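Handoff note, outgoing to incoming analyst
You'll be picking up this chain. Sequence as last confirmed:
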Amino acid sequence: MSLNLQQLAKELKLEFRGDAGLVVNGVASPISAVTGELCFIQDQTYLGDINASNCSAVILPEELAADVSGKSLLLSGNPQYSFIEAIEALGIEAQACASNEIHPSAVVADTARLGEGVTIGALVVIEDDVVVGSGTSIGSGSVIERSAKIGAQCHLHSRVTLGSAVKLGDRCILHSGVVIGSDGFGLVMHEQRWEKMPQLGSVVIEDDVEIGANTTVDRGALDDTIIERGCKLDNQIQVAHNVRIGAHTAIAACVGIAGSANIGSHCKISGAAVVLGHLTVTDNVTITAMSLVTKDIKQPGVYSSGTPLLENSLWHRCNARYKSLDKLAQTVAKLEKSGK
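Most recent structure output, in case you need it:
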């Protein structure tokens, strides 16, 4: 679908500047854009890229309008969100899928209940007593184990596995390789050997959750692992058994959350951070990349740990000096006590 600038501005409820009749027929990054395509910019960091771009129109904050020349403009307080709305208004789809089709190679148990308009890809296995909501699509090679429940308008990409009795809300997106409901890492040492603790709980994922490729969410040992509505999880995250993640929390790639941790709502956990087990993180907390959370976080705010990148020889010198910190602290304490 194509819209002229005036039509697009009306759809997005934005003020525009420039040629009202300019036809916008696509979106792109500043680097790859061609005539007729739309870009966006959040701040002045990429002003040079925008001005050098071949795009015809830009969504941007009003305070940057004077710094962009030769483009038609759409003024927005949140350009990135307006860009998402523009993609929808132009009818651009990232991944189109067939509707209301069940591939002949799919194996669907007689006791499974499928809603209207369900799409099931090649080599999918759906076991007994599974419920799939209307308008949901399940990609090729996926396995939905017995008694799992999937809500309406969900999109499971290829090779997704839902364990038995897992519950998935409406409008959820699970990317390729996601495993929900595998056994948690529950072990007990007895007579010099590890004995497996039965994992009797399940996983509950609420509405509008998106989970990235190859992320795993373990079932609870006794109670359920719970991911609340609106959470967004990146690729290759490990969520252990009995974890609870609050609504609208976003977690970046390679994060590890150990068993029975409780993460609050509207949190942001950056890449490769680790949250130890049985800890509580309150609402509205940001944890920066590579941080290790070893105790409860009780106040909202931004938290960090770890050593920032240094030139290698300097890092080795600093690392060697870490061993002297305790002795140095004791020396300083003695000096303060003696008043010298």
